[in-house]
User: Which sequence fits this backbone?
């Protein structure tokens, strides 16, 4: 409880009016003193609060008694306001502390989770049995997926590349354990027609990648879409193919590309893009058939531009020498060829979707039946994902 300050009043002899004026002045002075002293005591909290307690009045007149009562009222109101200010300050400090504790609680919660995950990964993440269990569960999940859902995807090349990554190691291990004629019932043969419809890529990022047919291995091939086969594009197509052949020849022989050949290829590609807008003006593209033809040609040229950029910037001479051409005939030989060459499947070209769907079914069949073959060969049944 705060200290009490007794304020003594000295009554002077004289008329009642004089005494009343002195009492009023004394009361006002007391209130001002409270107002001046209260903030330091309430907000600073440097010393205990002091409460102003006025002494009782004796032998007063009606006017002085009224003034005395008003002085007590003002003193009480001032003390009340100081108490309210102190209470608000304490409440604000308590609320700020509550918020700080809540933030620390959330931070501690997530920090505990992070440490727990790190310790779990440290203790279990590298254990072979845990890795095999995860792969087995992933395989069971994939097998349960509906085949129609897989085949009806817009771009099945993603499924092919996933299967390729999962099958590279296990199929080569089976071939090593059993022999080159492993998986005879799953090792289907690829026809020449199917191989001509399969496109591979060197796996460049950001859309900049070189694509080529499986059975040819020639980069920058130009299966021109119908929109670019019009007569107006004949000289431009011829110029691009000549510049492309010169580019491939220079890089395959010397490993470097001259500035003149580079500029020639870039200019030929740019001329095709400019001519496309001239041959297909915006007014004619209002027709649905013309727009589809124009859109297919534009998408093809965009892909061609990305391939040209990749061909100019790559340092891999094997891409241009034809050594990436597939010379086998079976599925397992295809997997081995792509694994050793670091190749992946490109998106199918128009007309090749059927071949890609059949290839997904074939690789999926190998993926599902591979664990049983590995058990016969003496491998761990759960090593395949």
Assistant:
């Amino acid at each position: 409880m705060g200290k009490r300050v007794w304020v003594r009043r000295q009554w002077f002899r004289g008329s009642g009016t004089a005494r009343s004026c002195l009492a009023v002045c004394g009361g006002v002075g007391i209130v001002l003193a409270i107002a001046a002293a209260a903030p330091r005591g309430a907000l600073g909290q440097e010393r205990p609060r002091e409460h102003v307690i006025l002494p009782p009045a004796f032998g007063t007149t009606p006017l002085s008694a009224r003034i005395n009562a008003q002085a007590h009222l003002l003193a009480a109101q001032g003390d009340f306001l100081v108490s309210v200010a102190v209470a608000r300050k304490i409440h604000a400090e308590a609320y700020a502390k509550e918020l700080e504790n809540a933030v620390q609680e959330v931070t501690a919660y997530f920090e505990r989770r992070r440490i727990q995950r790190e310790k779990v990964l440290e203790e279990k993440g590298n254990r072979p049995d845990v890795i095999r269990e995860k792969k087995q569960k992933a395989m069971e999940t994939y097998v349960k997926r509906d085949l129609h859902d897989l085949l009806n995807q817009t771009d099945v090349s993603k499924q092919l590349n996933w299967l390729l990554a999962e099958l590279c190691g296990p199929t080569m291990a089976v071939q090593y354990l059993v022999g080159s004629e492993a998986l005879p019932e799953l090792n289907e043969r690829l026809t020449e027609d199917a191989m001509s419809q399969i496109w591979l890529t060197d796996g460049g990022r950001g859309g900049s990648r070189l694509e080529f047919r499986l059975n040819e291995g020639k980069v920058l091939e130009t299966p021109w879409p119908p929109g670019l086969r019009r007569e107006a594009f004949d000289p431009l197509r011829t110029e691009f193919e000549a510049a492309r052949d010169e580019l491939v020849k220079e890089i395959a022989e010397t490993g470097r590309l001259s500035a003149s050949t580079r500029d020639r290829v870039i200019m030929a590609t740019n001329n095709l893009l400019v001519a496309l807008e001239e041959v297909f003006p915006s007014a004619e593209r209002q027709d649905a058939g013309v727009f589809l033809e124009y859109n297919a040609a534009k998408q093809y040229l965009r892909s061609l531009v990305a391939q040209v950029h990749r061909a100019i910037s790559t340092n891999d001479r094997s891409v241009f020498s034809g050594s990436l051409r597939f010379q086998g005939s079976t599925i397992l030989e295809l997997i081995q060829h792509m694994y050793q060459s670091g190749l992946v499947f490109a998106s199918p070209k128009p007309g090749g979707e059927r071949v890609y769907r059949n290839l997904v079914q074939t690789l999926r069949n190998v993926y599902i039946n591979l664990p049983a073959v590995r058990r016969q060969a003496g491998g761990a049944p759960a090593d395949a994902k």
Q: What stands out?
A: DSSP finds twelve helices and five strands in the chain. The beta strands are 3-6, 50-53, 199-201, 211-213, 344-345. Residues 1-24, 39-44, 176-180, 373-385 have pLDDT under 50 and may be disordered.
